[in-house]
Design brief:
Elements (H helix, E strand, L loop, with lengths): L1 H26 L17 H8 L5 H10 L2 E6 L3 H12 L4 E4 L15 E2 L3 H9 L3 H20 L4 E10 L4 H16 L8 E4 H7 L10 E10 L1 H14 L3 E3 L2 E11 L2 E11 L5 E11 L5 H8 L7 E11 L9 E4 L8 E6 L2 E5 L3 E2 L10 H14 L13 E10 L15 E4 L5 E4 L6 H16 L24 H9 L3 H11 L3 H6 L23 H9 L5 H8 L2 H4 L1 H19 L3 H18 L2 H10 L6 H14 L6 E2 L1 H10 L6 H9 L9 E2 H12 L7 H21 L4
Helix pairs in contact: 1-7, 4-9, 4-12, 5-6, 13-14, 16-19, 19-20, 22-25, 22-26
């Protein structure tokens, strides 16, 4: 048996070795790097004029979508639905789209941020001689290249390191990665390469050194998923589609044709105003991801469900956990899953998990999954890097819509790729797939919709190579013009250029004067991050309707640092209120709604629960020590620390702290949410700090400084010294 095992391994190595040798000997000599000549974006004057025209208002879109019969109505505003809308409208079809929340508010904004073909899928394709899986990888690699071409400001190649800890795995993984290059063919991003141990540690110094033999580096794509979706939505609208967020489908409209029931539109509700109206359409396409079956059963209540939702958790750690431009792949975790460890937006994203779940509007990360990811990270990082629970800046869950194919007899088997279903009532359903292949999925869906619903002759698909909003005038050096022309600081200018492309100039024009010598314009929403107030104004032009649309998807602040997002919320709401005419009551409701989102969906509640669950295990001496620290602020011996105690302390030490920041400092430890920190909460804080659950606490720092101040005073008054 053991001999067979090694023989099997040698066969695999031979197969991959031949593929790798062919790649090295035949493919590379004829292959020029895709980017050696820089970015050359092809666009005509008509396209540029269309992309720079003012966008219609939300009210104009509502009036348009309800006033005439559409050719295509798309339900679902994630990557797939937006891709379908863009494909249909560029073919000349009258197209509308409705999304019950914000564009990409679900799974499409909660991905691993990769645009990839799937290294592990290729491995399965070769080992199992699976042609279907091989075709899926090849298609994804082609779409990967296309997505980077059409939105170079949002998507780019990212090197990913695969550390190798056994010698026999070096040729095995090398051959596999070279095969991945080979399948990409002329659309290869950049060639993979092998690194020695010393070079690997030079590029990724946080990596565990023990037993490391070598490392492989290959290239996949990375993008800002939510911004990519917003760009798809805006591009579709510019080409004539009427795309509406916060518009929920209440029921499907039906008619009879030749004695058979047909879906002919939808009854929808504007969730912001409560108004309901009908949208009539010749063809309705269901692209609702995890909600696939809820729309299918509106069409036919007896239909079998095909969606099997799975939760994928990601966590965000500070930037020092990874190099600025090198990701890491763990190909075999303790439970057989794959985990990526990637730099993104000046932080580090780690994930994902894969756990069966129920469909919900508010998916939440769990402490169990967060700890699983942290433990896996510890296996790959140098022991000098202490992986602490308190370093988790944000955590989120995305529901992946795994589907079984209703077109096959064995409906229990999960489809490896996407599934397109045409119901008897002509409801078209597109489900499954992944971000990378959204465009090809959309093309296939519209092709089948035209045929099934008799939409008549239309032009062929035009989205391959079609530049998205912001790409037409973009260049890698655009940020320099923003610095020179507007007086923006460099970090902000780079962020705007990489987020909005050529539309960064429009954002810059909305920027307020700072009153400083430098930067001249561009007031930050939060001092630690490059998001500026002008982005809130621009977000409303991109159909942001609620505060969470700004902090989660127009900017990515809630995904990057949930605490920073919470601190920026009041200013975001004030600016939106001024623009949208919100009352004080509406502002309070928006604040409560957004804080609820941060607590449940961005991991804030999970972290607080973790802090409360930390076991108190202090000695008598330690308790006495912490009691003294507590009383150093509670000078009135009330039994709790209030905002007045903090205010008095900072005044005594000569430090000016704004009132809102005083409340933030207190809230870090106010687990009971009663504006008071009692001794129990205080001891919980000290224990959480000792266990690494809380790091960099401003409250704890104030106590520490206060204690040092008291010691100094005691010594001086006693006449101590030598």
């Amino acid at each position: 048996m053991r001999t067979f095992k090694y023989a099997k391994r040698l066969v695999y190595l031979s197969i991959f070795g031949l593929g790798g040798a062919y790649t090295a000997a035949v493919l590379y000599p004829s292959l020029a790097s895709r980017y050696k000549n820089g970015y050359v974006l092809k666009c005509n004057p008509e396209e540029i004029q269309k992309m720079n025209a003012p966008l219609p208002t939300r009210e104009e879109l509502i009036n348009g979508i309800r006033s005439e019969e559409l050719d295509v109505l798309v339900i679902g505003g994630g990557a797939t639905g937006l891709g379908v809308a863009l494909d249909a409208t560029t073919r000349g079809l009258k197209t509308g789209l409705v999304e019950k929340f914000d564009f990409s508010s679900g799974t499409s904004s909660r991905s691993t941020k990769l645009i990839h073909g799937g290294v592990r899928y290729l491995q399965k394709a070769v080992f199992n001689l699976d042609v279907e899986q091989y075709k899926m990888v090849k298609e994804a690699l082609s779409e990967r290249a296309n997505l980077i071409d059409i939105a170079p400001h949002l998507a780019y190649p990212l090197p990913i390191m695969l550390p190798v800890y056994q010698w026999w795995q070096v040729p095995y993984y090398w051959a596999g990665i070279k095969m991945y290059d080979f399948v990409a063919g002329s659309e290869l991003l950049k060639p993979s390469y092998l690194l020695s141990k010393s070079k690997a540690l030079e590029l990724f110094p946080m990596l565990k050194k023990d037993k490391l033999k070598a490392a492989l580096v290959y290239y996949d794509g990375q993008h800002d998923d939510a911004r990519m979706a917003i760009s798809l939505a805006v591009t579709a609208i510019r080409y004539g589609a009427q795309c509406l967020n916060y518009t929920r489908v209440e029921s499907l409209l039906k008619t009879h044709v030749d004695g058979e029931e047909r879906v002919c539109g939808a009854r929808v509700r504007n969730t912001l105003t409560g108004e309901e109206y009908n949208i009539r359409a010749k063809c309705v396409i269901n692209a609702t991801g995890p909600y696939t079956d809820s729309i299918r059963t509106m069409g036919d209540c007896k239909i079998k469900h095909i969606c099997q939702p799975s939760s994928g958790i990601h966590i965000v750690l500070p930037d020092y956990y990874s190099p600025a431009s090198m990701g890491l792949l763990d190909p075999s975790t303790s439970d057989g899953r794959v985990i990526f460890f990637l730099p993104w937006q000046n932080v580090t994203v780690a994930g994902t998990t894969d756990t069966p779940c129920e469909v919900t509007d508010n998916p939440q990360p769990t402490e169990k999954d967060i700890q699983f990811i942290l433990n896996e990270i510890r296996n790959y990082l140098n022991p000098d890097v202490e992986v602490r629970r308190g370093d988790v800046l944000s955590a989120w869950s995305g529901i992946r819509p795994l589907v079984s194919d209703p077109n096959k007899s064995n409906t229990q088997s999960i489809a490896r790729n996407h599934v397109i279903e045409i119901s008897k009532n002509k409801l078209i359903t597109i489900a499954g797939g992944k971000w990378t292949t959204y465009r090809s999925m959309a093309e296939e869906t519209v092709d089948k919709a035209i045929e099934a619903c008799g939409l008549g002759p239309s032009s062929p698909c035009k989205t391959k190579g079609l530049l998205l909003d912001g790409a037409h005038g973009w260049s890698p050096t655009l940020f320099i013009r923003l610095v020179q022309d507007f007086g923006l600081e460099n970090a902000v200018a780079q962020h705007l250029a990489q987020t909005y492309g050529d539309k960064a100039f429009k954002v810059a024009k909305l920027s307020s004067i700072t009153g400083k010598r430098w930067p001249v314009v561009g007031k930050r929403l939060h001092e630690e991050y490059p998001y500026i107030e002008a982005e809130v104004k621009y977000a409303m032009r991109e159909y942001a309707c609620r505060a969470i649309d700004v902090i989660a998807r127009r900017t990515r602040l809630s995904f990057i640092n949930v605490h920073a997002a919470q601190e920026a919320l009041p200013r975001v709401i004030d600016m939106m209120a001024q623009e949208l005419g919100w009352s004080e009551e509406t502002k309070k409701a928006e604040l409560a709604h957004a804080e609820g989102y941060l607590r449940t969906e961005m991991g804030l509640d999970v972290k607080r629960a973790t802090e409360q669950d930390v076991q108190l295990n202090f000695t008598k001496d330690e308790i006495n020590y912490y009691m003294r620290r507590f009383k150093s602020l509670d000078v009135e011996n009330k039994g709790y620390i209030s905002i007045n105690d903090l205010r008095r302390y900072f005044k005594n030490v000569g430090v000016r702290i704004p009132e809102d920041q005083l409340h933030e400092i207190l809230s870090e430890v106010d687990l009971n949410r009663n504006a008071e920190v009692d001794i129990g909460e205080f001891l919980q804080l000290m224990s959480a700090i000792d266990h690494g659950v809380i790091v960099h606490s401003r409250f704890a720092k104030a106590l520490e400084d206060n204690e040092e101040k008291l010691k100094k005073i005691t010594v001086e008054r006693s006449g101590g010294g030598v």
